[in-house]
């Protein structure tokens, strides 16, 4: 039986900024429109956190039963390491996704019922990333899904459920958030190229190869930087988001210098921290100047 610490590790806490930051950014964008609502923001945060934990457990289960996680560097894999039964991890995934669904249903009924359809797509995307007979995560589409779900949908959805409309500020913030969220997955998949290729998991990193995956990681961080400069058209004070630049530089250092394996693990942490600092600084600025 897995211990509580192993279950927590299996939820992959280092990915939580990918859930928290879009809600922060979206709430800041809603405040810019004069529509921030703490109750709806809290519901959006619950949806995002439950969804990402559900995704992580679902990936652990699906990759584990396929044997993809038998040899891995990085966070503990509950099924792959034989720490928990596949049924137990699947139940944890389903429970987390169900919680996300319930919270999302409440949020949709408080704002716009048509968002229920968006929620259904998000839940399906969470499970089919590595689940089902043709998982899209095995076809090199994982980074695209992260950009869409934890960038565009999460930020603009958070803005809309509070302000009941979106604008270009929210859209640019969503692009920046999606780019940094995708960079976290790129770093993870860069580390796992050898084992993913051997097990038949054809991620985008496997398709691109080591060198071009490193270029993609840096490019995604650069896109976030450009988006920050675009936001200064709303208010020059959005340049405060560039406070995250030193963290981005630190995150990219192992990627730029050719690190491999376990040496790439800190990249996930530092990229997530970059995302969280950027979202917080930008949201505070937008809210203060609304």
TrEMBL record:
Involved pathway(s): Quinol/quinone metabolism; menaquinone biosynthesis; menaquinol from 1,4-dihydroxy-2-naphthoate: step 1/2
Catalytic reaction annotation: an all-trans-polyprenyl diphosphate + 1,4-dihydroxy-2-naphthoate + H(+) = a 2-demethylmenaquinol + CO2 + diphosphate
Keyword set, alphabetical order: Cell membrane, Membrane, Menaquinone biosynthesis, Transferase, Transmembrane, Transmembrane helix
Subcellular localization, as worded in the UniProt entry: Cell membrane; Membrane
Keyword Protein transport recorded: no
Topology within the bilayer: Multi-pass membrane protein
Residue stretches spanning the membrane: 41-58, 112-129, 136-156, 168-187, 215-237, 271-289
Predominant localisation class: membrane
NAD among keywords: no
EC number: 2.5.1.74
Entry's Gene Ontology molecular function annotations: 1,4-dihydroxy-2-naphthoate polyprenyltransferase activity
Signal peptide boundaries: none
Entry's Gene Ontology BP terms: menaquinone biosynthetic process; vitamin K biosynthetic process
Domain of life: Bacteria
Pfam families in the cross-refs: UbiA
Family: Belongs to the MenA family. Type 1 subfamily.
Name recorded for this polypeptide: 1,4-dihydroxy-2-naphthoate octaprenyltransferase
Organism: Mycolicibacillus koreensis
